[in-house]
């Protein structure tokens, strides 16, 4: 029930949010920093272009691809977070964690598709909850306990969205 109350809020806010965004995403200058792969590029979602954006995830044929975390920073502070899948350098299935709550579902060209099928939303939350746990374990193995704790806590928050 809580999931759908949050979704009502997000759906009410979305039209004005997306009207303020640029319609065409641009290729980010940032590179895949975790894999140190300078040839791995991705497309920043609309509205993220004025931020430094970092992809921590897989790369296929020079494009960000697969499960991971896309983080946007402005003035050195984390401002937006996407957890989920990128397909051929663009966000696909996942959740954007923003100040107003979560935007979950299937994306195309960086924009949330208007599909209100609850199974798509449930799959998005399940997918990112697992991604956050996996990423937390990777960070812990690499010695970054503070970030590992953050993503483990985030996984719990995402899991509770399905209650």
Written description of the protein model:
- The protein has helices spanning 2-19, 118-141, 145-160; strands spanning 52-60, 63-74, 77-87, 90-98, 101-108, 111-112.
- The relative contact order is 0.14.
- The chain has a 6-stranded antiparallel β-sheet with strand order 1-2-3-4-5-6.
- The model is unreliable at 3-36 (pLDDT under 50).
- Strand 4 (90-98) and strand 5 (101-108) form a beta hairpin.
- It has 163 residues and is an alpha+beta fold.
- Helix 2 runs antiparallel to helix 3.
- The protein has a domain at 2-115.
- 36% of the residues lie in helices and 31% in strands.
- The chain is globular and about 40 Å long.
Overall form = globular
Strand order of the largest sheet: 1-2-3-4-5-6
Order of helices and strands: HEEEEEEHH
Point out poorly predicted stretches. Answer: 3-36
Structural class: alpha+beta
Overall mean pLDDT: 78
**What can be said about the biggest beta sheet?**
6 strands, antiparallel
Q: Note the gap between the termini.
A: 7 Å
Instruction: Please state the CA-atom Rg, rounded to the nearest Å.
Output: 15 Å
Helix share bin:
25-40%
Q: Helical segment tally?
A: 3
The proportion of strand residues reads: 25-35%
Tally the beta strands: 6
Provide a concise account of the structure shown.
The chain has 163 residues and is of the alpha+beta class. The chain has helices at 2-19, 118-141, 145-160; strands at residues 52-60, 63-74, 77-87, 90-98, 101-108, 111-112. The termini are close together.
Structure characteristics:
163 residues; 3 helices; single chain; alpha+beta
């Amino acid at each position: 029930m809580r999931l759908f109350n949050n979704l009502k809020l997000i759906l009410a806010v979305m039209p004005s949010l997306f009207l303020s965004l640029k319609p065409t995403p641009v290729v980010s200058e940032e590179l895949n920093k975790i894999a140190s792969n300078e040839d791995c590029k991705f497309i920043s979602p609309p509205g993220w272009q004025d931020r430094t954006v970092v992809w921590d995830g897989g790369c296929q044929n020079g494009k960000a691809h697969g499960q991971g975390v896309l983080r946007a920073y402005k003035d050195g502070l984390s401002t937006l977070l996407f957890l989920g899948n990128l397909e051929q350098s663009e966000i696909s299935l996942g959740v954007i964690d923003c100040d107003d709550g979560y935007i979950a579902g299937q994306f195309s060209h960086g924009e949330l598709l208007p599909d209100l099928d609850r199974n798509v939303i449930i799959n998005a939350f399940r997918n990112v909850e697992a991604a956050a746990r996996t990423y937390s374990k990777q960070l812990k193995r690499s010695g970054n306990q503070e970030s590992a704790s953050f993503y483990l806590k985030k996984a719990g928050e995402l899991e509770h969205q399905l209650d």
